[in-house]
């Protein structure tokens, strides 16, 4: 189990002192939830400065923020001007989080405005910035808002996707601010990655999602992989300093939107994925094949839509696709390249999940094989997954249960150890 939700007594910055967190609060009803976030941060040992907008103070007052954080609270750059607060906060913060972020403040940040202390601080920031939007569904889905989200993500700002659920009044839908505990956990994980920076300059080629093999112009053979695991690994690798090429086979768009900082290449079929991964792997230090590749494809792809045959059966001849992972492992030119495969197994009477995975690691000659049990209700989209990581000899290098984010960290730690820390 990962420790993302545990609160330690002292949350240290890379320089050894307490972590400095600036919590921006804007004028949304979810501002009250930011009180809990501030409390969690303070309890974890962080030094927290709250920067509300003027509108936010009509939701939760200055006294509350000052009492919770133990620091004076300003909304504008001309208050406490002697300390040049926006530059100071931008420089001393280890992370800036704006929770909730209204559509209006998102737009101001996207436009690079600096008309209050919060937007000026974001503009002066040298640290990671995390926005947690909360607004009505229509406002969130409005192309103007979505464009602003894309703009700020393009500049390296993390935008946490809003949750779906009850909004102000009787409305319900995407736009709700995630719970403070979830935001806290994301901040811890982001900051831990950022401070570690242990993959600085390391080049990753990561495939994710599931290939689709066309039958005719409208039909295909596919699988249920969303790409969530590969995307989580890519996100954490980027946060730890890696240069990531992400080869996406039908990965969910919201996962791709969250992949700020990775170069994204699309691949539809196994043949396309093979080509793209071979190109990406040629200059990679670490290759991860998290994609679910169709083992077979139709021998012939019909140019026109296949018609029903009045009750008589249809025969589809399938031919085997090349094994991309085995090919990459066999043809690697740099013996120091680390190659990681995924074995999604169900186990059967003949063999256990672990045994099947071990055999696969040996057969494909990979450095590490991440084995997980899948089934109708396991592995695909689950919150909690169990993995075992074995090396080419079948020796267990790690075993863990957790969310995909937590397991992504376990996988990256195991890769780091496999490479002997000499990344
Ligand atoms: N893989 C691949 N090319 C294929 C099939 C699989 O690169 N044509 C990779 C997957 O990306 C994964 C690993 O091999 O990293 C194991 O995939 P899996 O489907 O579990 O293994 P298969 O070799 O297809 O074996 P089987 O389906 O018979 O269990």
Please tell me about this protein's structure.
The chain has 423 residues and is an alpha/beta fold. It folds into two domains: 4-194, Rossmann fold; 199-418, CoaB-like (Rossmann fold, 3-Layer(aba) Sandwich), CATH 3.40.50.10300. Helices cover 33% and strands 23% of the residues. The chain is built from 14 helices and 19 strands. It has helices spanning 31-43, 62-69, 85-92, 103-110, 117-123, 137-141, 143-154, 180-196, 228-239, 253-257, 270-281, 324-330, 353-364, 404-418, and strands spanning 20-25, 47-52, 95-101, 129-133, 158-159, 163-166, 172-176, 203-209, 213-216, 219-221, 243-249, 263-266, 286-289, 296-298, 318-320, 338-345, 368-373, 385-391, 396-402. Strands 12-11-8-13-16-17-18-19 form an eight-stranded mixed β-sheet, sandwiched between helices. The radius of gyration is 24 Å and the shape is globular.
Structure described in brief:
With 423 residues, the protein is of the alpha/beta class. The chain has helices at 31-43, 62-69, 85-92, 103-110, 117-123, 137-141, 143-154, 180-196, 228-239, 253-257, 270-281, 324-330, 353-364, 404-418; strands spanning 20-25, 47-52, 95-101, 129-133, 158-159, 163-166, 172-176, 203-209, 213-216, 219-221, 243-249, 263-266, 286-289, 296-298, 318-320, 338-345, 368-373, 385-391, 396-402. A hairpin with a 4-residue loop joins β18 and β19 (396-402).
Tally of extended strands? 19
Ligand identities: cytidine-5'-triphosphate
CATH class of the largest domain: Alpha Beta
- Rg, alpha carbons: 24 Å
- CATH homology superfamily name of the largest domain: CoaB-like
- Give me the secondary-structure category: alpha/beta
CATH architecture of the largest domain: 3-Layer(aba) Sandwich
Average pLDDT, all residues:
91
The proportion of strand residues reads 15-25%
Low-confidence parts: 1-9
**Ends: how far apart?**
26 Å
Tally of domains: 2
Number of helices: 14
Reported by name, the CATH topology of the largest domain is Rossmann fold
């Amino acid at each position: 189990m990962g420790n993302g939700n545990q609160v330690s007594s002292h949350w240290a910055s890379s320089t050894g002192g307490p972590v400095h967190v600036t919590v921006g609060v804007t004028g949304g009803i979810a501002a009250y939830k930011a009180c809990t976030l501030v409390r969690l941060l303070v309890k974890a040992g962080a030094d927290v400065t709250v920067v509300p907008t003027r509108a936010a103070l009509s939701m939760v007052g200055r006294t509350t923020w000052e009492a919770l954080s133990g620091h004076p609270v300003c909304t504008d750059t001309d208050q406490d001007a002697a300390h040049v607060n926006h530059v100071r906060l931008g420089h001393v913060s280890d992370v800036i989080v704006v929770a909730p972020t209204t559509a209006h403040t998102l737009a101001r940040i996207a436009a690079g405005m600096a008309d209050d202390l919060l937007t000026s601080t974001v503009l002066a920031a040298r640290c990671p910035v995390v926005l947690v939007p909360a607004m009505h569904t229509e406002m969130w889905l409005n192309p103007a808002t979505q464009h602003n989200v894309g703009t700020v993500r393009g500049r390296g700002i993390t935008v946490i996707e809003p949750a779906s659920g009850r909004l102000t009044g009787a409305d319900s839908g995407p736009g709700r601010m995630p719970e403070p505990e979830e935001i806290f956990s994301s901040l811890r994980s982001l900051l831990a990655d950022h401070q570690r920076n242990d993959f600085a300059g390391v080049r990753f080629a990561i495939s994710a999602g599931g290939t689709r093999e066309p039958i005719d112009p409208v039909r295909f053979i596919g699988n249920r992989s969303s790409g969530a695991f590969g995307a989580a690994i890519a996100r954490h690798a980027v946060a730890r300093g890696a240069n990531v090429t992400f080869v996406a086979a039908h990965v969910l768009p919201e996962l791709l939107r969250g992949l700020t900082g990775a170069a994204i290449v699309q691949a539809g079929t196994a043949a396309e994925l093979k080509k793209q991964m071979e190109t990406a792997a040629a200059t990679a230090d670490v290759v991860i094949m998290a994609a679910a590749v169709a083992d077979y494809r139709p021998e012939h792809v019909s140019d026109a839509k296949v018609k029903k045959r009045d009750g008589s059966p249809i025969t589809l001849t399938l031919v085997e696709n090349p094994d991309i992972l085995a090919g990459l492992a066999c043809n690697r030119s740099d013996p120091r390249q680390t190659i990681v495969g995924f074995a999604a197994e169900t186990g059967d009477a003949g063999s256990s999940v672990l045994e099947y995975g071990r055999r696969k690691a040996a057969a494909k000659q990979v450095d590490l094989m991440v084995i997980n049990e899948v089934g109708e209700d396991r592995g695909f989209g689950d919150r909690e997954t169990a993995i075992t990581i074995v090396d080419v000899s079948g020796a267990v290098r790690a075993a863990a249960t957790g969310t995909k984010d937590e397991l992504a960290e376990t996988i990256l730690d195991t890769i780091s150890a496999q490479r002997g820390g000499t990344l």
